[in-house]
Design brief:
With about 200 residues, the chain is an alpha+beta fold. Helices cover about 35% and strands about 20% of the residues. It has six helices and eight strands, in the order ββααββαββαααββ. The strands form two sheets. The protein has a six-stranded antiparallel β-sheet. The chain has a two-stranded antiparallel ribbon with strand order 7-8. A hairpin with a 5-residue loop joins strand 1 and strand 2. Helix 5 packs antiparallel against helix 6. The radius of gyration is 19 Å and the shape is globular.
Length: about 200
């Protein structure tokens, strides 16, 4: 993938946009709020109701897989993520400024004529803070949010840390959460594999 001087590729194909001086998403002298809809258009801050609607229409709730670094566990742990997507970058910057998140990344090059899409990803810790506030207002993603809240409660009850030993019983529960989330998202389980250390278990044979 050929990238211009303003771009830097990240692991999953999305691109971190840079200006020519190497600053992320604009010159250092440019105030962050000046690049957002809050500063440019004078809109009100992003409310839980607005964020819930945005997540329903332009987002996803799912799991990513994280190697926990414990050689005895021989496995990966699911980590909740929320992805928010839009062709209008400033609205994602507004959400990030108020609710947190990683870099706003640019999609890989698309077919000629297609508009650039941007992504904001929220980590599990941020998901745990956001979901209780937006969940009462969700409609389309309500089931995924309920599964996510159950998963967070389970992980909190077992005192999960990134290097904690993963027992076969916990792995089976993680697998059940993954199957339920993928089903809620409309995924075909025949095309899904459950990461299990050095090998991957196909969910449906």
């Amino acid at each position: 993938m050929a990238l211009g001087p303003r771009s830097k590729a990240v692991g999953d194909g999305w691109v971190r946009d840079r200006d020519f001086s190497g600053q992320v998403d604009g010159p250092a002298s440019e105030p962050a709020i000046g690049r957002t809809t809050l500063g440019v258009h004078g809109v009100t801050p992003v409310s839980p109701e607005y964020l819930a609607g945005f997540l329903d229409g332009e987002g996803s709730i799912t799991f990513a897989w994280h190697w926990n670094g414990n050689p005895k566990s021989r496995g990966r742990t699911p980590r909740l993520i929320i992805g928010l997507y839009n062709t209008f970058k400033p609205v994602l910057e507004d959400i990030k400024a108020q609710w947190g998140g990683g870099d706003v990344l640019k999609s890989p090059p698309n077919k000629l004529g297609k508009r650039t899409c941007w992504r904001l990803r929220l980590s599990q810790g941020q998901v745990a803070k956001i979901l209780p506030e937006v969940m009462p207002h969700l409609r389309i993603k309500r089931m995924q949010a309920e599964i996510a809240m159950e998963f967070l409660a389970f992980e909190a009850a077992r005192g999960a840390t990134s290097r904690r030993m993963i027992s076969p019983e916990v792995r089976a529960i993680h697998r059940d959460f993954a199957e339920r989330m993928w089903t809620a998202n409309g995924s075909d389980l025949r095309n899904k594999e459950f990461p299990a250390g050095p090998r991957r278990e196909r969910l449906v044979s």
